[in-house]
Fold:
Amino acid sequence: MRRVRDPMPGSAAAFDLQGVTREFGGLRAVDGIDLQIREGEQIAFVGPSGSGKTTLLRLLNATQRADGGTVAVFGANAAEATPRELRALRSDIAFIPQDLGLVPGLRVHQNVGLGRVGKRTFLQNLRGLLAPRKEDLQTIHGILDRVGIEEKLYHHVSTLSGGQQQRVAVARALFQRPRALIADEPVSSVDPARAESIVALLTTLATEGALTLCASLHHLDLARRYFPRLIGMRAGKIVFDAAPDAIPEDTFKGLYDLDDREMVET
Ligand SMILES: Nc1ncnc2c1ncn2[C@@H]1O[C@H](COP(=O)(O)OP(=O)(O)O)[C@@H](O)[C@H]1O
Ligand SMILES: [Mg+2]
Structure:
């Protein structure tokens, strides 16, 4: 199968993983992965539950350490970074966790404002929550407009629908002004029509901002239609890494069929 070796010649590496392993009590959640992702690439990670997608995404944003191998993020070896350097690295990467990580009791603009929490001092953050600066509110309003919920600026997050909350999480990520956007199952809890509109939004925003986008997705169909590079994972390993058109139908099916066989055997 054709491997995506140099999809964007000339652009720098956003992430470079060499022989990376991450274990949990003897179980290899990520098992010897080599992976290069260039700045500006848009990649969907697919594979059955438990195949290691979330663990891999957390290695990319350096919130999990590797037990073996090396993880380089924007050219810096994550294992050698000082706490301060790690904070700087992470502030370049917006991570949208599967549960979104929003604070339900806070208003939309306050949640979005938290996107820059890692770039500001404690007092600046406190002020951002209690009395946000006019220019920040304007920026946040502009971002909310971009993600389609500008009228929700002062609403409490707990009053929004699942799809709207997803958009707040995307807005918070954009407010961070990241170089890379990592989204873990960004559409797992919304209906198919909303799922498509959010995936379309993420890929459009990444293209507009020249951001590197890595997303894990349950929806194989959306992954194939919206992402130029798909990485299939199975038991902590990469089983394919190619453009959607270059991946045979059987390979897609096999990714999940294997799971069924295992379930029958146990
Ligand atoms: N914090 C953890 N503690 C113990 N096991 C974990 C932890 N995180 C992940 N795992 C295990 O690692 C494997 C891969 O999990 P994960 O990366 O969440 O996969 P996916 O996102 O593809 O569902 C699973 O077997 C899971 O149970
Ligand atoms: Mg996961």
